[in-house]
Structures are given as structure tokens and as C-alpha cells.
Amino acid sequence: MVSYFLISVLAGSIMLIIDVVFVNNEFAKRISNPLDSIQRKNNKFARNLAVNISFGFVFAGFYLMSYRSLPGLPGSFFRSFYFASMVWILSIVFKAMSQWVAFDFPGKFLLYSVFSGFIKILSISILFHYLLRPLYL
């Protein structure tokens, strides 16, 4: 249980670091201009940390619950890749599709958010493959 807790916190921290990298580069700032009017001006680090760590716990629990039902051989990296693909489609891609329908965001912004979301989900899936999977077997 302590290992699950530490790995979940680590996954949330990695997601936060990836968010910071993908949001604070020049390309992201240029294509996210439509969001300037609705973004919070005082975006607190503690709030982002709490959200990402809670996502780390949710994704780690979901990984443990779904690991044996994922396709591929036991211990195979393909199971982790399928997990990342499944979570990416159900969370990131569907969110981008909803934003495309509801808002007038540029296509570059939506594609960038889909790509950065895949990198984020794949990175924590790799972390879970190497650190969390041995807890389950």
C-alpha cells in the first residue's frame, strides 16, 4: 500500500511537470490565445499539484484494476500501451472533440492538446509498467 501511494504521488508529479513543460513553451502560448479571456489569472501551483496527484491515484488504481484484462502477454509492454491508448481516447480525445464542437478553438490548439495528453498518459503508463505492475503480479 505504501508503494501504491508513492507511485501515485510520483505519477501525479510527473503529470504536473509535463503540464508545465507543455503549457509554458512559446508555441503553446501562441496557440492558446483564445483561452486568455477565460483562464484563471492566479493559477496556483498547489491547486495544480493536488489535481495531478489525485489523477495519479485514479490512474494507478485504474491500471491495477484493468491490468489482467488488457490484451497482450503478462509482463508485456503492450499491455501498458493499450492502457495508455484507452485512457487517452476516453479522456483526452473525447475532451478535444467536445471542445471542437462547443467552442471556436483553432485546430492547432486541439491537436496540440491531444498530442501533449498522449505524451502525458504514455509517460505515466510506462512508469506504472515498470513500478506498479510488479505489485500486482
Describe this protein's structure.
This protein has 137 residues and is mainly alpha-helical. It has helices at residues 2-23, 26-31, 45-66, 77-102, 107-136. Helix 1 (2-23) packs across helix 3, helix 1 (2-23) packs antiparallel against helix 5 (107-136) and helix 4 packs antiparallel against helix 5. The radius of gyration is 16 Å and the shape is globular. It starts with a helix and ends with a helix. The mean pLDDT is 85.
Main attributes of the structure:
77% helix, globular, mainly alpha, 137 residues, 5 helices
Draw up the topology in text:
Blueprint: H1 2-23, H2 26-31, H3 45-66, H4 77-102, H5 107-136
Radius of gyration: 16 Å
- Share of β-strand residues: under 5%
Mean pLDDT: 85
Query: How would the global form be characterised?
Result: globular
**Largest sheet at a glance?**
none
| Tally of helical segments | 5
Low-confidence sequence ranges = none
Give a brief rundown of this model:
The protein is mostly helical and 137 residues long. The protein has helices at 2-23, 26-31, 45-66, 77-102, 107-136.
